[in-house]
Each structure stands twice: as C-alpha cells, then as structure tokens.
Design a protein that fits this description.
Radius of gyration: 20 Å
Shape: globular
Largest sheet: none
Number of domains: 1
Helix content: over 70%
Strand content: under 5%
Order of helices and strands: HHHHHH
Number of strands: 0
Number of helices: 6
C-alpha cells in the first residue's frame, strides 16, 4: 500500500474517509439502538395519549424541549456544586452525541414517531421569519447549543476559581 504525504494529498484524504466510514459502521448500530430506546420509552410513558405514534412523538418533542430548558434553568437556580457539575457534563455529553451521531437521537426518535422531519427548533425558526430546512436548523442548533454550552462553561470555570 502506498503511503500518504502530509501535504493533504488525495491518498491521505481517501485513507481518512475510509477511517471515518469504519467508525460510522461501528457507531451506526449504537445510534439506531438509542433511537429505538427513545421510541420505546415514548410508547411506554405516553401510552395514554390519543393519536397513536404521532401523539407520542409530539409528547416526546415537548419533553425534549422542556427538559433542556429545565436543566439549563436548574443550573443557574441552585447553587449546588454537585448539581451544576452534573448538568455541565451532561450538556457536553449531549453535544458530543450530536457530533458523533450527526444529530440528536431524541430528535430522530421524534421524527420516526411523527413521520415528519420537524425538530424542536422549527417553531423558533418560523418565528424568526425563516423556513426550517437543513441549513437553518444547523445554524440554529449551533447558535442555541453553543450559547448554552459557553455560558455553562464560563460559569463553571468561574465557579471553580472562586475561593471561599
């Protein structure tokens, strides 16, 4: 096998692409297992809702949005270092899974249940006067999640630097 040069040659890119594809093959079953887990949880937790899977998917979407807001609010509402550290690491775990799995597994579960491609960001994108599509969702995700993550990061660092 020929060796790749360090100058970004096509051979190096091909090796990198092959490596990334191997990683995706390994992670794909984990991603779909997590999606199936959230679908099953929604069916069990929201069995009483009318509307079949669509109603359960919409309920999961509401819990997804409200849960994130509650965690973010709890972080700033309580001055409990253990709770704050847990929420801080949880948010970075969520960001990591979004990067690794190319999107949120809960959103994918919601989309499978509702059989639509709506996300929890779509109402906010529409309120802003834009139509939700891949690019606006990516921009909105980066903006919202990035802002939340940076405020948590800055606050956690400043909290840890505080000397009592």
């Amino acid at each position: 096998m020929a060796t790749a040069k360090d100058d970004g040659s096509p051979l190096k890119k091909e090796i990198h692409d092959e490596h990334m594809e191997n990683i995706r093959k390994i992670l794909r079953p984990i991603k779909y297992s997590l999606i199936d887990l959230f679908i099953s949880l929604a069916r069990v937790l929201f069995f009483w809702l009318p509307g079949g899977d669509v109603g359960k998917g919409q309920a999961l979407m509401i819990c997804h949005f409200v849960g994130g807001c509650i965690l973010y609010t709890l972080y700033f509402a309580y001055n409990n270092p253990g709770l704050r550290l847990f929420i801080f690491f949880f948010f970075f775990f969520v960001i990591g899974q979004q990067l690794i799995f190319r999107g949120c597994v809960i959103t994918k579960a919601e989309q499978k249940l509702t059989e639509r491609d709506d996300t929890i960001l779509d109402p906010w994108i529409r309120i802003s006067g834009y139509e939700p599509h891949r690019e606006t969702r990516i921009i909105c995700s980066i903006t919202v999640v990035g802002t939340m993550a940076l405020t948590l990061l800055m606050n956690t660092i400043l909290d840890q630097l505080r000397i009592f």
